[in-house]
């Protein structure tokens, strides 16, 4: 008997207005501590699914519970990392990180303390006075992650956060993300186009198919945490990447 | 040659050539026609002879320009905020804003004189009308051009409308606002001058530069007319200079237009 799911989707459907079905009867139960990757061809609705869980958009049918409540009610438990860093260019790194707390009405002293703590977590403690334009793409993304962690969320929703970064930076940030998760037990939903990234990060990979968007297969990744750069050299890792790639190709050719 | 030196030398050289051509034209003219083009020396001398009236007129024009400019900033900011709230409000009001911009000052001035009387009040209103449009258009554009992802970020963290406006839309609109402000700063002294020319008054402490220009013209003081033009130019440079400075203060930390390429 599994524990109570932290996030539970039951026959969730989504369409925008009178448009075509974007998501068709998606059911998924996510346990606390899961790291779920959502992968699939474009148009499979993986980003839409993330937005539904975030409460940025309502479901059209079915039920979606986050921590036993609606996403709107559970807003305090959720944090979102966008595709782009989405930092406010007129604020320093520290103030960007403190923004969610500022919006919640927390005091400047509390915000400064949290900013320091989460910036240290992403190893940018020394750049707190910098402005976003002075940072590299990878650094901006780390600030964006620090900002998401500033409210100590239970659930982290990441929408292809490293898609625009080069391979090396992406691999580094993947390792850092897992290292942070060793210290803070949040549950993650991670949308990606990269099979390697999905296998490296997650314990469960949800492969989605398009038109209409639906869950095709779910793959469990049995690799033990903590995973490090060495994990990428292991035989199991390579076999899994090959297997997921094969499934993804079959989904994509069926759609073509 | 270092680029910085070139930036100084080239305009200086242009100025020297300009003055040489000026003297050349002047001394190639018939003697009885030379009054049409006073030399720079004569213009400087006219500053000495008409210093009092010019200074007083410049002060009056500065006052009119500043008041009209300030009024345009305050009211355009308030209106831009209102317009940014809904596209329905924008659609309803835009044609009339355009109309406001189309009003020809020359026709409006006599009406204005009837309404508020000639002098400073009319000058301020005319300056306001001329500065208002670029400010309201640019600021509104800035307030509605906020990055979509940033808006979602604020929604995600359940920001209220006031927080969204103060912490996101207003700072994001600043570069647009300053673009409008720069245009308005160029227009403000010209607006005050035109206002003064069409609706000025010698009552009280005398008119502004526009009114003074009419007097010099009727007295055939041509060097003083040139001096008036020079003073207006300087006034324009001061207005624009202050705005450029403010814009730098507000934006240089973060905005791409101030990106240093050497760091």
Briefly characterize the structure:
Chain A is of the alpha/beta class and 256 residues long. In chain A, 36% of the residues lie in helices and 22% in strands.
Biggest sheet record of chain A: 6 strands, mixed
Top-tier CATH class of chain B:
Mainly Alpha
Q: Rg of chain A to the nearest angstrom?
A: 18 Å
Runs of chain B with pLDDT <50, length 5+? none
State Rg of chain B.
23 Å
How widely separated are the two ends of chain A?
A: 40 Å
Mean pLDDT of chain A: 93
Structural class of chain A: alpha/beta
Kindly report the spatial arrangement of strands forming the biggest sheet of chain A: 5-6-7-3-8-9
Query: Helix segment count of chain A?
Result: 7
CATH architecture of chain A: 3-Layer(aba) Sandwich
Helical amount of chain A: 25-40%
- CATH-derived architecture of chain B: Orthogonal Bundle
The CATH superfamily of chain A is P-loop containing nucleotide triphosphate hydrolases
Strand content of chain B: under 5%
Largest sheet of chain B: none
Counting DSSP E segments of at least 2 residues, the number of strands of chain B comes to 0
Whole-number tally of structural domains of chain B = 1
Largest interface: A-B, 24 and 23 residues
CATH homologous superfamily heading of chain B = MetI-like
């Amino acid at each position: 008997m599994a524990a109570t799911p932290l996030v539970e989707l039951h026959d969730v459907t989504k369409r925008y207005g009178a448009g075509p079905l974007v998501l068709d009867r998606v059911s998924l139960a996510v346990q606390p501590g899961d790291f779920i990757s959502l992968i699939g061809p474009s148009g499979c609705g993986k980003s839409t699914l993330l937005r539904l869980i975030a409460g940025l958009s309502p479901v059209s049918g079915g039920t979606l519970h986050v921590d036993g409540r609606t996403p709107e009610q559970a807003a305090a438990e959720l944090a979102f990392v966008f595709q782009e860093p989405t930092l406010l260019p007129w604020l320093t790194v520290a103030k960007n990180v403190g923004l969610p707390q500022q919006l919640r009405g927390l005091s400047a002293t509390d915000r400064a303390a949290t900013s320091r703590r989460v910036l240290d977590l992403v190893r940018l403690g020394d750049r707190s006075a910098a402005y976003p334009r002075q940072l590299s793409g990878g650094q901006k993304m780390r600030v964006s992650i620090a900002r998401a962690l500033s409210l100590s969320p239970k659930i982290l929703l990441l929408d292809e956060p490293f898609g625009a970064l080069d391979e090396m930076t992406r691999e580094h940030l993947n390792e850092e993300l897992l290292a942070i998760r060793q210290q803070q037990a949040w549950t993650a939903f991670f949308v990606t186009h990269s099979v390697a990234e999905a296998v490296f990060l997650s314990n469960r990979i949800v492969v989605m198919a398009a038109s209409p968007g639906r869950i095709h297969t779910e793959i469990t990744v049995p690799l033990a945490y903590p995973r490090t750069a060495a994990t990428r050299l292991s035989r199991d890792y390579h076999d899994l990447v090959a297997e997921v790639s094969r499934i993804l190709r079959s989904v994509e050719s069926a759609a073509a | 040659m270092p680029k910085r030196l070139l930036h100084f030398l080239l305009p200086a050289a242009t100025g020297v050539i300009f003055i040489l051509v000026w003297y050349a034209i002047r001394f190639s003219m018939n003697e009885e026609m030379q009054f049409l083009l006073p030399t720079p020396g004569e213009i400087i001398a006219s500053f000495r002879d008409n210093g009092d009236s010019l200074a007083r007129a410049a002060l009056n024009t500065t006052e009119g320009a500043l008041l009209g400019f300030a009024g345009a900033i305050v009211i355009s900011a308030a209106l831009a905020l209102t317009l940014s709230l809904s596209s329905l409000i924008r659609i309803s009001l835009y044609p009339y804003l355009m109309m406001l911009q189309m009003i020809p000052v020359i026709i409006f001035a006599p009406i204005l004189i009837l309404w508020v009387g000639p002098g400073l009040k009319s000058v301020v209103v005319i300056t306001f009308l001329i500065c208002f449009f670029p400010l309201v258009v640019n600021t509104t554009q800035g307030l509605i051009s906020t990055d979509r992802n940033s808006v979602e970020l604020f929604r995600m963290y359940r920001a209220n409308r006031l927080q969204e406006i103060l912490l996101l839309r207003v700072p994001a609109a600043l570069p647009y606002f300053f673009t409008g402000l720069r245009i308005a700063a160029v227009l403000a002294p010209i607006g005050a001058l035109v206002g003064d020319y069409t609706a000025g008054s010698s009552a009280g402490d005398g008119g502004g530069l526009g009114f003074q220009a009419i007097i010099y013209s009727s007295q055939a003081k041509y060097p003083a007319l040139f001096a008036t033009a020079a003073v207006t130019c300087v006034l324009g440079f001061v207005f624009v200079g202050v705005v450029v400075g403010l814009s730098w203060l507000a934006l240089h930390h973060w905005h791409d237009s101030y990106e240093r390429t050497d760091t």
